[in-house]
Specification:
homodimer; alpha/beta; five-stranded parallel beta sheet; elongated; DNA-binding
DNA sequence: TAGTATACCGCAAATTGATGTAATATTGTA
DNA sequence: TACAATATTACATCAATTTGCGGTATACTA
């Protein structure tokens, strides 16, 4: 790490004035940090972003006007290199994954302690991805496979290829087996999952994390 | 949080004796922790697991015999409730995602400081998912969508449905549009991505994180 | 011995990909 | 605010391919 010559500049978008001011105070009084803007909506922030160019933005999800998730891509377009940390009470699957897919680099819940917020800002600038414990678990769970899949290894492999849109002929070629064998595998997969089409097989398998 | 009446039991699987003993020492000397086993391979550990039943296992990836990733599902089968933390030098995409999909609850790199390891063990038992900064960024990056997709919102939606194996008719029904419109969207998607089949469209779109 | 992986046959129905045209809606920018 | 570029919607035709269902059967493996 190099010594920080210029302060880390932070902007805050949060509609609750109490919370907004409390974050401002916290960050402004931390060594090496500077608050360059605190806004109660995206619309208000957007007017000033191009002048202030913060390093990091703390972004709430619930906002008047367009919400934090929808604001994410717009902010990224204005300031492509800015690191955005979501700071919210929402900890449900959908909000978390929407935020991450729209370009958030971290996700903290509002019970996060002051010093952890400061740590998170540093971490995100060092290439990390700070997350609250519950969010991290959500994210990791999304990768976990069901260990009790009824599908055999080969069947799983075939179904994964089906879910990539490949035809039976193509799957056969890529796995170096006969197309008839692929047909048999698919037949058996359908039976095991109790479905009668590609789409339903993929749906069931994804819902149960078989693929 | 409740007061911890019984110590947290930890097992270690790590082939390097220096590292293994250093972790043992660290954990054994932390308040509220007990090391109930330290092994240099999965095979050795498996013989004792059913007797010792640890709460948490620290697992290395590079091991003699079967490696840590392959050991994961076997451990989970023996001890379904154990929390497994990967502790390794590997920080590449494949190893991380394999570990997570096979059931690891956390992933730390070996430069993790002593007190962070202790923190991580506590965190994983509280339902968190401790990750090193670089790993967290890898994981989060895997969710990020490309903000410069050539596909329109509707086209993206259609292609996502195609990648779920749905037929054009079904997509049309679910999006409340005519099947002919779906055909047009697909035609335009193929043109934009310069492909000529479902499979190639999905491949290109996934590689570029358009879907 | 049950399950897995492989392969073959036949058939009707459905899907796909290519190539056109074109009206209306929305959006970004000048 | 008006204009141009996209986006979204819809229709028509066609041959080739794919899909799902019904069987059967052999060799390997845990």
């Amino acid at each position: 790490m190099q010594i920080q010559h210029t302060p880390i500049t932070v902007a805050i978008i949060e509609d609750d004035s109490m919370i907004r001011e409390s974050y401002s105070y916290l960050i402004a009084n931390s060594d090496g940090f500077e608050v360059v803007g605190a806004y109660k909506s995206y619309e208000e922030a957007a007017k000033n972003f191009l002048n202030i160019r913060p390093d990091v933005i703390l972004l709430d999800v619930e906002l008047p006007g367009i919400n934090g998730i929808e604001a994410l891509p717009k902010i990224k377009k204005l300031l492509p290199t800015v690191q955005i940390l979501i700071l919210t009470v929402y900890e449900n699957n959908e909000t978390v994954f929407d935020a991450l897919s729209q370009g958030a680099s971290g996700y903290l819940t509002k019970n996060t302690s002051s010093n952890k917020i400061i740590e998170a800002i540093k971490e995100v600038l060092e290439g990390g991805a700070p997350m609250s414990a519950g969010v991290a678990r959500l994210v990791i769970n999304s990768f976990q496979r069901n260990q009790n899949s009824p599908l055999s290894k080969r069947e799983t492999e075939v179904l994964e290829n089906v879910s990539l849109g490949k035809s039976r002929r193509r799957i056969a070629d890529e796995l170096f087996i006969d197309m008839e064998t692929v047909k048999t595998h698919i037949k058996n997969i359908y039976q095991k999952l109790d479905v009668h089409s590609k789409a339903d097989a993929i749906k069931t398998a994804k819902e149960n994390k078989f693929i």
